[in-house]
Amino acid sequence: MIKNAIFMSLCMLMIFSSCEKKHEKKTENVKFLITKPIKKDTSITKDYVSQIHSIQHIELRALEKGYLKQIFVDEGAYVKKGQRMFQISPNVYKAELEKANAEQHVSQIELKNTKLLADGNVVSQNELALAQANLEKAKAEVSLAKTHLGFTDIRAPFDGIIDHLEVRKGSLLDEGELLTTLSDNSKMWVYYNVPEAEYLDYIMSKDKNVKKEVKLLLANNKEFNQTGIVETIEGEFNSETGNIAFRATFPNPDGILRHGETGSVLMTVPYKDVLIIPQKSTFEILDKTYVFVVDENDIVHQREINISAELPHLFIVDKGLTENDAILLEGIRMVKDQEKIHVKMVNPTSVLSNLELYAE
After folding, report:
1. pTM of the complete model beyond 0.70
2. How large a percentage of the chain has pLDDT more than 70?
């Protein structure tokens, strides 16, 4: 049994030695492509979940009690400023106006008679002043009655689109009861939250006073056909999320956007003098990213890097590499740390323009 064990061990050793020699021979016969990071200005497009609001969105409420006599509009209809929308039964308020007009007429007669008597020194000037005051009070009552009557005729305060009707014809309304909402969708305010670090980059940039253009990606994954402008930033950060709200204004000439929609704001962020490498030259171990750096003796060294941003097929590296480092472009799974390999240098510019061709 001892002889058999020794024989099996020798066989296994020969097999492993044979495999290792084959691997070495394969590595020796292969020329691995290497390249260098390229330093340049670039930009990335970041997307932020957003909420879309009408530039004006208000509730229309009844200002007087009464029965809803007429509804002149329908849900989803477009109305013009001043267009009649609802009428609350005006009978009581018409009667109040008639009563006020009558009292004003009486006050005018009393003032006229008092003036004649005052001219003849029959009554004092105080009596005349009192009659004049009564007339002014009567005029105020007429004005108030007209206002109340006007509240029974509800008209659109601006051009907009009507939302759901909360009441129906014949409903008994209380003062302040909600009738519907009205939205001015000619322009839309789009709110999105930006992390503190990105806010600081934005507010400290040289072109901070230039209004930034943004795009809007809709829920159907299609880009909105108008460009928005970042016009304002809210006054304080959300202490729970660490974000601050930006507001972009989008024209909405075709009426595509509606109040309450969601989407994603697409904002272009510039990067100056950054190192760019192909994504395929990297690999991950746990939550860290690495590349293979090849030294002047063609020996491979595993090195950790930090990725600051991502582009299609590319990474922006802010730590771990210099523009003079040579990195392994392909064959990452075929080499190991501290291994000597045969290499062929590829121009970084050529690599960037032909990334699709360097797929493993």
Report:
1. no
2. 90
